[in-house]
Amino acid sequence: MELGQSCVSRWVNSASASTDSLSDRIQERRTVEESYGPDVLHLTVIKGYLAKLLANAAVVRWLARHQPEYLKEFQSIAELKELPWGSDESSSALKEHA
């Protein structure tokens, strides 16, 4: 009998750990879903700001001389047509605010 109880006990502990892991995954997904909208909005605002900043020739010259790696990254963000992960919802949000 002890062997059977031991197996059942291990199975219950294993199932409990799996349930905890599943709960953790569900919570992580909810967190990502909740932050997705604000993240898209922030990226859209940043993209617009960088595009406006890069329209200033003096700023571009200064960045080219002093921070060329920043200039390259700023340009790539300002030229985004859709988010890197390619969501239809996110690309439409970027196009609306471009």
What is the mean pLDDT?
Answer: 78
The string of secondary-structure elements, in order, is: HHHH
Beta-strand residue percentage = under 5%
Q: Name the quaternary structure.
A: single chain
Number of helices: 4
Distance between the termini: 71 Å
Rg, please? 24 Å
* Annotation, overall tally of beta strands: 0
Low-pLDDT runs of 5+ residues are: 93-98
Overall SS class: mainly alpha
Q: Compute the number of structural domains.
A: 1
Descriptive key words:
98 residues, mainly alpha, 0% strand, rod-shaped, disordered C terminus
What does this molecule look like?
- With about 100 residues, this protein is mainly α.
- It has one domain (about 1-95).
- The chain is built from four helices and no strands.
- The chain starts with a helix and ends with a helix.
- Mean pLDDT is about 80; it is low at about 95-98.
Outline of the structure:
The protein has 98 residues and is an all-alpha fold.
Question: Helices, strands, pairings?
Answer:
Blueprint: H1 2-54, H2 57-66, H3 68-78, H4 88-97
Helix pairs in contact: 1-3, 1-4, 2-3
